[in-house]
Amino acid sequence: MKNKDLLKIAEEFGNPVYVYDSEKIIAQYKRLTNAFKQVKNLKVNYAVKALSNINVLKLLTNEGSGLDTVSIQEVQLGLKTGIAPEKIIFTPNGVSISEIEEAVKLGVQINIDNLSVLEQFGSKHPTIPVCIRINPHIMAGGNSNISVGHIDSKFGISIHQMPHLLRIVENTGMNINGIHMHTGSDILDIEVFLYASEILFEAAENFKNLEFLDFGSGFKVPYHENDIETNIEELGEKLSKKFNAFCKKYGKELTLAFEPGKFLVSESGFFLVKVNSIKQTTSTVFAQVDSGFNHLIRPMLYGSKHEIVNITHPTKNKRFYSVVGYICETDTFATNKRIAEITEGDILAFKNAGAYCFSMASNYNSRFRPAEVLWHKGEAKLIRKRETFEDLIANQVEVEL
């Protein structure tokens, strides 16, 4: 997308506003599938939690993607797109057995990561195919909050609990059709995936009726110009060889599955905000914008870095700014960032705003959540309306006091 396209969208739909480039999403999907073209059966399940707008789900399912879901509501969103239930995998954590059984009724693939739940489910539903999420005890990811495969993680069944796991499967007669793992997000070193794959292959040998192995995701995307990223092409070449060799040893052509979220949608997204004022203190120049961490919490929550550009005056000399929001507590998007000189009323674009941005937005400070726009085939399509005061109070119930 060009600056002029983004400026036109800001003018037409107001700001703040999220914008997603469908062409980039499709390109990332094709890049991943091409990297693993040596695998006979490849399945990509888009991680709905990254960006759950139903139009984005439709875009990806139209390309052949399945869906990775973590709540019954995400399952329902997926089904609303018209996708077949068997193309959805349900990978919750810490939910009740009743929620899992609700997913069973909807016909989706179940993925269980808890020995207690596994035993309860297997005793009641021994014939229903189940995938098991393994914790490989590998510390990986760009932040402790998104590293989920280490020894103290709440996710997955410890690889060291395999004897207990196998006893449950044997005693219940369960049908285990998949093995899954996910070590974290923003993983740069492909050796992490290759090392973890050996653990998954070894675990898989304990089960005779597998249909797929799910390697999770966590591929790192570039966050600024010349930033490093996961080498998907190299990973595809090396992991495909290992996977094909394992299938030959196993005696069956299995499906290789991934569940990317950020990799598919992060770079497609732009978050557009308007500068309300420039405020200079004794040591800092603040660019105060018409948004806050209620709309984009990642910098405050994870310390994530989003490249910020002045698309109104991109060629002006760069100066140092701290970009801050309007929430009534510390609300910093960036500190001492070099940005083309900003004046009040300028539109700033936050890049890499496609993943875990709108999906984590809230109404904190009773602010409205912004609109979402899909840039598709050269046309801006509104895919979520900006909230109104009526939306804010829709579920509140007034009582006599």
TrEMBL record:
<dbReference type="GO" id="GO:0008836">
    <property type="term" value="F:diaminopimelate decarboxylase activity"/>
</dbReference>
<comment type="pathway">
    <text>Amino-acid biosynthesis; L-lysine biosynthesis via DAP pathway; L-lysine from DL-2,6-diaminopimelate: step 1/1.</text>
</comment>
<dbReference type="InterPro" id="IPR022644">
    <property type="entry name" value="De-COase2_N"/>
</dbReference>
<dbReference type="InterPro" id="IPR000183">
    <property type="entry name" value="Orn/DAP/Arg_de-COase"/>
</dbReference>
<feature type="binding site">
    <location>
        <position position="302"/>
    </location>
    <ligand>
        <name>substrate</name>
    </ligand>
</feature>
<keyword id="KW-0028">Amino-acid biosynthesis</keyword>
<feature type="domain" description="Orn/DAP/Arg decarboxylase 2 C-terminal">
    <location>
        <begin position="18"/>
        <end position="354"/>
    </location>
</feature>
<feature type="modified residue" description="N6-(pyridoxal phosphate)lysine">
    <location>
        <position position="49"/>
    </location>
</feature>
<feature type="binding site">
    <location>
        <position position="298"/>
    </location>
    <ligand>
        <name>substrate</name>
    </ligand>
</feature>
<dbReference type="InterPro" id="IPR022643">
    <property type="entry name" value="De-COase2_C"/>
</dbReference>
<dbReference type="InterPro" id="IPR002986">
    <property type="entry name" value="DAP_deCOOHase_LysA"/>
</dbReference>
<feature type="binding site">
    <location>
        <position position="356"/>
    </location>
    <ligand>
        <name>pyridoxal 5'-phosphate</name>
    </ligand>
</feature>
<protein>
    <recommendedName>
        <fullName>Diaminopimelate decarboxylase</fullName>
        <ecNumber>4.1.1.20</ecNumber>
    </recommendedName>
</protein>
<keyword id="KW-0210">Decarboxylase</keyword>
<dbReference type="InterPro" id="IPR022653">
    <property type="entry name" value="De-COase2_pyr-phos_BS"/>
</dbReference>
<feature type="binding site">
    <location>
        <position position="218"/>
    </location>
    <ligand>
        <name>pyridoxal 5'-phosphate</name>
    </ligand>
</feature>
<feature type="binding site">
    <location>
        <position position="329"/>
    </location>
    <ligand>
        <name>substrate</name>
    </ligand>
</feature>
<feature type="domain" description="Orn/DAP/Arg decarboxylase 2 N-terminal">
    <location>
        <begin position="24"/>
        <end position="266"/>
    </location>
</feature>
<feature type="active site" description="Proton donor">
    <location>
        <position position="328"/>
    </location>
</feature>
<comment type="subunit">
    <text>Homodimer.</text>
</comment>
<dbReference type="GO" id="GO:0030170">
    <property type="term" value="F:pyridoxal phosphate binding"/>
</dbReference>
<dbReference type="GO" id="GO:0009089">
    <property type="term" value="P:lysine biosynthetic process via diaminopimelate"/>
</dbReference>
<dbReference type="Pfam" id="PF02784">
    <property type="entry name" value="Orn_Arg_deC_N"/>
</dbReference>
<dbReference type="InterPro" id="IPR029066">
    <property type="entry name" value="PLP-binding_barrel"/>
</dbReference>
<dbReference type="Pfam" id="PF00278">
    <property type="entry name" value="Orn_DAP_Arg_deC"/>
</dbReference>
<keyword id="KW-0663">Pyridoxal phosphate</keyword>
<keyword id="KW-0457">Lysine biosynthesis</keyword>
<comment type="function">
    <text>Specifically catalyzes the decarboxylation of meso-diaminopimelate (meso-DAP) to L-lysine.</text>
</comment>
<dbReference type="InterPro" id="IPR009006">
    <property type="entry name" value="Ala_racemase/Decarboxylase_C"/>
</dbReference>
<feature type="binding site">
    <location>
        <position position="356"/>
    </location>
    <ligand>
        <name>substrate</name>
    </ligand>
</feature>
<keyword id="KW-0456">Lyase</keyword>
<comment type="similarity">
    <text>Belongs to the Orn/Lys/Arg decarboxylase class-II family. LysA subfamily.</text>
</comment>
